[in-house]
Amino acid sequence: IAGVLNLRGRIVTVVDMRARLGLPKADDGKPPMAVGVDQRGESYGLLIDQIGEVLRLPDDSREDNPVNLDPRMAKLAGGVHRLDGQLMVVLDVDRVLELVPKTDPRTAAAA
After folding, report:
1. Are 51 and 21 in contact (CB under 8 A)?
2. What's in the GO CC field (predicted)?
């Protein structure tokens, strides 16, 4: 967990995706971006390096993770899609948040 923030009166838990994937911190000097997700009745911000095109893909074109997928990615991936001869890994948000506590960050900090 990278921290928490107040977004329009809602407490948002921020998850650093580089840390979650076991990657080193970016050293390009660019600030990370945050993508907001609502999951398990809570709001989360996922810190990422960049975002590309947003796509809506049919679930029937999703394939299982390839056996040679980097284990750091495989533990957080919900499958892959083939796009223009390349694989796009689909992030499984439930898996990303498995280690994020469901407690209120305000009460957790007081404990």
Report:
1. no
2. cytosol
